[in-house]
Each structure stands twice: as structure tokens, then as C-alpha cells.
Amino acid sequence: MDIQEMREELNQIDLEMVQLFAKRMDTIARISKHKIENNLPVLDSERELEVLNHVVEISGNKMETYTKRLFNTLLELSKSYQNQLFSHNSQLAQDIKAATCELTRQFPYKANVACQGTEGSYSQQACEKLFPLPNPMFFLDFDSVFQAVEKGMCEYGLLPVENSLAGTVITVYDLMEKHKFHIVRSIRLRINHVLVAKKGVALDDIKEIISHEQAISQCSGFLKANPQIKVTVFSNTATAAKYVAESNRSDLAAISSETCAELYNLDILTHNIQNRDNNYTRFICISKEMRIYPGANKISILLSLPHKPGSLCTLLSKFSSLGLNLTKLESRPIIGKDFEFMFYFDFDASIYLPETVNLLCELENSLSKFIFLGSYSEIF
Question: Is 283 a catalytic site residue?
């Protein structure tokens, strides 16, 4: 046989496989109907293991590994298909339905908003971009922002979660499991760092630079070019600028924003000291209650997986089978457990589609820990 003949043979095999796959899924649908009528769960672990063992046994030694992978995928697709056929009426589904029906109004025009740092911080700038008339309230650290929202001191809170140059804001992700909150919007803010000092101070006078660790990382090139200057981590860029303004030192500078230079009457010694011009920080806006505003097209979830091979791959296949685009996957170690992790997902999906809600309910029912963090839109 020449290659064209072999390809034609493959085409015929593929046709038969597609027909058999459709027949298999039709049988799955009938099984699902039976399960619904008899109030049976989608997952039957004993039956699944029986199928896998059987196909591996009859496949032969050369093909057993590939056969197992093929049928693992088939079984995951079958479960996903069955799950879509079930009518979910869980508390999560009810909460999502209530949130989407209740909030037909637009995103609020003004609100009390918790921000980390002090006046002039990038969190405040993000806040003012989100809310035309905000009332920002400043807190010392990220944990306090979560608490302010959780305890009802502020309606909303602003938190940085990642930067295009320095990566993930680890502290915020580590706090997510600890607090009860929902994401209602996100925003990408362009960051332009400048070096600020007291009036009349020159760059050659500077012996120490202070700023937040993220800003320091984003300006690593500038700092490496000035190795004689000591670098000290501060809680916030605006707090650092304020500290310089109130200090008597003429050898101290801060990495901060032009807004802070004007606000605290400081000179800008050097402009745009970040490593690249396309420097953006993504902030999430959180609230205590689930609020889904019109136009929501992004979803965030937090979950843990069984500590066994293939767990993450199995989960990812559920998103792939629905054609959903994952935009963020972050893992953080679970405190007190060796090499076990919490996973944070962002993905593009419409919360108004039944299949999206069905997927969320499936994950909630099948995983030991699952938290729906919110459905929202992102502005630039």
C-alpha cells in the first residue's frame, strides 16, 4: 500500500470511530435519563474502574498505556456530557441565578472602597478609574482590606493580583482561602514608576531607595545599574513617598508614581524606571456578597484536587470539552499539608449559559474544596 491508500484507510477508521462515539454518547444520554429518574449520581467510581481495567486487559501489552489514556478521556467526556444533561438546583446554582436576576442595574457610581496603602497609591488610582465618585479608605495591609469588606466596613475593596513584569502578588493569593468574598470587577492599570526625593536632592546624593517589593522587582534593571544604592522594602509605594516627604534625610528616595510626587511635593529624579513600558497591574474589586453585573464574561474559582496523578489533567479536560479558555492558573501550597496545593483559575465564560453553571455545580459536587469567587467583567 502507498501512503495515500493508508490515509484513506485511516479516514475510514476515523469515520467508524466518530459513528461509534456518537452511538456511545447516545447510550450515555439514555443512562443519564435513567439516573435522573432514579435519583442516581453521575459518578459511579466502581463502574469506571471496571471499564478501565477491562479495556486495558483486552488491548494487549503494546497498547495498554495508550488505551488507558484514551478511555480516561472518553470517561471524562461522558461524565461531562451527563452532567450537562442533569438539571442542577444546588445552592450555588440558586445563588448565581438570584445574583444574575437581581443585579440588572449598572456598576455603582460611588461607594466606600478599601485600599491598601495611603493617599496616592496605585490601588487608589485603580479605585478612581473604577468608580467615578469613590470614597477610598486606606488600610495598612492586604489582609486588612479583605477584613474591611468581610466585616462590612466597606462595600468594596481593591487588591492587586498580578503584574505584567513582576508576576503574581503572592500575598493576596495566600489570603484568598482565609476570607469570604466575591470578585465583582477587575481592572488593568498602567504603571509608570518614577524615582522621587525631597526638593533640591540630586540622583548622585541618593544612598537608599525604598518602595514596595513589587515595584522594586519591576524596576530591577534601574536598581542593578545603581548597585551603590541600598534598597529597602516598604509596605506600599505611596507610603514610601510619604515617608520620604516627612523625613529629614537628603539621601533618601522612593520608587513611586507621578501622582505621589505632586501630592507630597517631591521632585522626580528619573522618569519611567520600570524595566519595560508595557507595565500593567491587574486589580480585583471585591465585595462581601455575590454581585454579578451586566456584561460579566470572566469567572474565577478556587479549588483543591486529589493528590494523585492526572488530577489536574482530568480537571482541565472539563474546560476543554466545553471550549472554555483558561486565562489564569495559579497554585499555592496548602499550609499543613506536604506538597498539596490550592488552585486558582480564571476563565472566559458566560455565567448566563446553563452549561457554565452546570460545570460549576459539577466541580462543587465532585471536589472536596471548591469556592466560586465570582463572575465579572474586566476594564482596561
Answer: yes
**Confidence class for position 38, pLDDT limits 50, 70, 90:** confident
Q: Locate cell 519611567: which residue?
A: 272
**Residue from 100, 239, 281, 356 carrying the catalytic annotation:** 281
C-alpha distances (whole Å) from 262 to each of 35, 197, 238, 268 are: 67, 11, 11, 9
Pairing state between β 194-197 and 167-168: unpaired
Q: Mean pLDDT across the chain, nearest whole number?
A: 90
pLDDT-above-70 percentage for the chain: 97
The pLDDT value given to residue 205: 94
How do beta strands 156-163 and 110-116 pair?
A: parallel
Active site residue 107: no
Catalytic residue among 222, 283, 345, 347: 283
Domains and CATH numbers, the chain: 3-85 (1.20.59.10), 91-190+280-379 (3.40.190.10), 194-270 (3.40.190.10)
Residue 339 burial (CB < 10 Å; 0-12/13-18/19+)? exposed
Between the alpha carbon of residue 67 and those of residues 53, 166, 254, 315, the distances in Å are 10, 42, 60, 19
d(CA 15, CA 21): 10
Q: Does 103 have pLDDT greater than 60?
A: no
Please list, in sequence order, all residues whose beta carbon lies within 8 angstroms of the beta carbon of residue 106, skipping any fewer than 6 positions away. Answer: 293, 294
Residue type, 361: C
